[in-house]
Amino acid sequence: MDAYKRWVRRNRDYVHSLESLANGLTWLLPERFSESEIGPEAVTTFLGIITAINEHIIETTPSQKGSVSSEPHSFPYSLCISALKDLETLVEVVAQHYYGDKKKWNFIAITEATKVLVRLALFQNSGYKMLLHGGETLNIEMPSDDSNSQLNIRGCPKPEGNQRHGYLQNNYGRNSWNLEGRALSALNRFGENARMVSEPVWLQRIQHQQALMELPAPMVERPTLLKLLSAKGAIGALFLMGEVLFITRPLIYVLFIRKYGIRSWIPWFLSLAVDFTGLGFLSLATRSRHDGKEQTFHLSTSEKDELKRRKLLWALYLMRDPFFSKYTRQRLESTGKQLEPVPIIGFLTEKIIELLVGAQTRYTYMSGS
User: Fold this and answer.
1) 48 and 23 Cβ atoms separated by less than 8 Å
2) How far apart are CA 159 and CA 168, in angstroms?
């Protein structure tokens, strides 16, 4: 296994190309979107899990310090979520084949409940950070707002760069970055610079390498739920509710489909309402406000992109029943008939519509979870 990890990390570009090619060819497998598609879906699931494992190996490449580069958790949450998403389609196909259209929702609900539990565990373990791509991507980026990103959960400034050493030496359980702390840090830097001038270059390199090997990883205190709510107040509660609604929305949708059926408007409207409410809470929590006491959540670039991605996922409501059966499918078929006489374009349009209609029959392809 170690040899395979080393090969993947050395040939990551080659691995990505092979994975993209293999995943693209799965759409050309025979009997796709037919009654006996267990085989093609099993191949797709297998390739998806292999891709997730390779991505996890690349993301957890050890750094020069000997620590993992981007995986801060002992449990591979992102790998588990990716594997569950790939496995969910196969579960749906097998359940529909052996148990029928109605009972398959029991198995889909179990899969969605498992994903909810893993995502909630990741949300709690990450210090209540926003989940990126449903937890498949680790959220390790710092907030992009420089004026406020230096504030930790207690509102105390965090040192960075050369300030970190002085901060660690003068931190006695209170905010020591005062005038005395800055003076001591300046003296410390002056002494270090003087010693670097007097020492030869080769000795500096050896000491630098030893420092990289011996320096322990910084201990990052993850905020608990009580600390987050006490520090952020109502803003923190809104952020938590928004993320929890986003995490639980697919399970709520499946449970109501299981009760009312896929043709009912109740699950469709309820899922849309949960999405709107959750994003509304996040927008209120992250809106720029300066009221003195409460501080809003300042999003990083990745978190801002994640909010945009979640808004784009609303387009999937056009592909979900009953909206698709009543409106979207008619528009697709009329467009296909209009473009049918056009050479090449008509043929490509027909194939695209065929793929869309076939993919729409699977909940997992249009779930957005």
Assistant:
1) yes
2) 9
Q: What's the predicted TM-score (pTM) here?
A: 0.72
What separation, in Å, do the N-terminal and C-terminal C-alpha atoms of the chain show? 31
Q: Which of 298, 294, 274, 278 is nearest to 286 (CA)?
A: 298
Angular region, 344: left φ>0, alpha ψ -120 to 50, beta rest: left
Q: Is the dihedral of CA 333, 364, 104, 109 positive or negative?
A: negative
Segment of 20-24, 121-125, 193-197 carrying the highest mean pLDDT: 121-125
What percent of the chain has a predicted confidence (pLDDT) above 70?
69
Could you read off the pLDDT of 283-311 as tens digits, one per residue? 988 875 545 444 567 888 999 999 999 99
Nearest by Cα to 115 from 254, 5, 313 = 254
What are 162-180's pLDDT values in tens digits?
Answer: 444 443 344 444 444 444 4
Contact call for residues 251 and 116 (beta carbons, < 8 A): yes
Question: Cβ distance 63 to 53 under 8 Å?
Answer: no
Residue 155, pLDDT score: 41
- Contact yes or no for 131/139 (Cβ under 8 A): yes
